[in-house]
Design goal:
GO terms for molecular function: ATP binding; ATP hydrolysis activity. The protein is of the alpha/beta class. The protein has 15 helices and 13 strands. Helix 6 packs parallel to helix 8. The structure holds adenosine-5'-triphosphate and magnesium ion.
Length: about 400
């Protein structure tokens, strides 16, 4: 089977060139290359073609697997052109005794804020690729008007797993990615992030009105068939908890109506062909909510393995090199080290040290891992800039300290 090379082209915000002209120019440039680097942003200025140089911000190539580079020849090149929306999310708030409580955030996709987020999340065993395939299938099915009574497809995704494993980030990144990939069907995406936790944390009396207002706004967005509306409900288990608290009488009785209203509204949304409901949860046992029960995709997101940890650390080190905090050095791909049989040479030494640190870090969440370089610098380095081996030793100490804190 011929592999599809997905090429996402970020057009400069002030460029008015036709998308087709940009696609043609980029395709011609890519065909000149023997190989391309995958899953890493290539700047437009890297290319020699004038159109690409002046109109393209960056290009991202990827295959539906985790290779780090590929030959261009022999692949089926699929191009997507998009421009990043610069505006930040608009926050919807509710008044309470302590001031304003954020209950929803609305942002237009593809947004500058989430640029590169997808590429910076690392999982093993094709988690991201599977999610994309699933969501693309959902889109194809609604495109072709497949009858949901015949083939079950509810447009609901649930990511569940322990805290700090990137579930919320992955939902946002998925919404951004799918907006770019489905650019020929939708003119833009809308990400509506419902903060159910603060919506039901207290003060139910205003929640009812707010829920209705929120959903009438979402339905207005859905009226536009050219908009892909992604509704993100973080910590969806708080809805189930709120309902249980009502039933047990620990919450005012009218609040159950609010929770149920929200669930009914969500159930209704699923009928729109251009909606995608993304949910996350920290509890791994079954959540007592009908609409999550029927999620098309239930994906467990766990702690990263040493392989994914290596990629997270490598990305952190690259950032430290880019900013001049750590001296330039080469950190090899794990696949390269494997090919050499993990043999230690002066060239692979530092990468192998990083391998060791990655193994040592198994059991820490992505959130903690991304904090380790900061802690290493703050606690164990007393110079502003340093070398890779020095920095790795400081990371080793920071990991030890972190593990001690977490597991004792
Ligand atoms: N697998 C991963 N690869 C790269 N970065 C990760 C990974 N997992 C988590 N992170 C980073 O950790 C931070 C926290 O992620 P996020 O808030 O999405 O996690 P979460 O699973 O939603 O957590 P919670 O359950 O506490 O809400 C983000 O900055 C994210 O980039
Ligand atoms: Mg979260």
């Amino acid at each position: 089977m011929v592999e599809i090379l997905h090429v996402e082209i970020c057009q400069k915000i002030d460029s008015t060139l036709l998308q087709q002209d940009i696609k043609d120019a980029v395709k011609a440039e890519l065909c000149l290359l023997e190989e391309v680097i995958l899953n890493s942003l290539l700047l437009g200025t890297f290319f020699s073609n004038e159109i690409v140089k002046t109109h393209v911000e960056s290009i991202l190539c990827s295959l539906n697997n985790e290779k780090s580079r590929t030959k261009v020849k022999g692949t089926n090149i699929q191009l997507y052109v998009y421009r990043l929306v610069q505006e930040e999310a608009a926050i919807e708030t509710m008044q309470d005794d302590n001031g304003e409580l954020p209950v929803a955030a609305n942002c237009i996709l593809p947004s500058k804020e989430f640029h590169g987020l997808w590429e910076n999340l690392y999982y093993d065993s094709g988690v991201k690729e599977n999610l994309l395939d699933f969501v693309e299938t959902i889109a194809v099915f609604s495109d072709r008007l497949v009858d949901p009574n015949v083939i079950n497809c509810n447009r609901v995704v649930l990511l569940h797993g322990p805290p700090g494993t990137g579930k919320t980030s992955l939902c946002k990144a998925l919404a951004q990615k799918i907006t770019i990939r489905l650019g020929d069907r939708y003119s833009h995406g809308e990400l509506v992030e419902i903060n159910s936790h603060s919506l039901f944390s207290k003060w139910f009396s205003e929640s009812g009105k707010l829920v209705m207002k929120l959903f009438s706004e979402i339905k207005i967005l859905l009226q536009n068939p050219k908009a892909l509306v992604c509704v993100l409900i973080d910590e969806v288990e708080s809805l189930a908890h709120a309902r249980k608290a009502c039933i047990n009488g620990t919450e005012p009785s009218d609040s159950i109506r609010v929770v149920n209203a929200l669930l009914t509204q969500l159930d209704q949304l699923k009928r729109y062909p251009n909606v995608l409901i993304l949910t996350t949860s920290n509890v791994t046992e079954a959540i007592d909510l009908a609409f999550v029960d029927r999620a098309d995709i239930k994906q467990f997101i766990g702690f990263p393995t040493d392989l994914a940890i290596y990629k997270i650390y490598a990305s952190c080190l690259k950032e430290l090199m880019r900013t001049g905090i750590v001296d330039q050095d080469t950190i090899h791909d794990m696949s390269y080290l494997k090919m050499l049989g993990y043999e230690e040479t002066s060239e692979t030494k530092h990468s192998l040290m990083l391998c060791e640190l990655s193994r040592q870090s198994v059991g820490l969440s992505g959130r903690v891992l991304r904090k380790i370089p900061f802690l290493a610098h703050a606690l164990y380095l007393h110079t502003r800039t340093t070398t890779v081996p020095r920095f790795l030793r400081a990371m080793h100490l920071a990991i030890e300290k972190q593990k001690e804190e977490e597991f004792n």
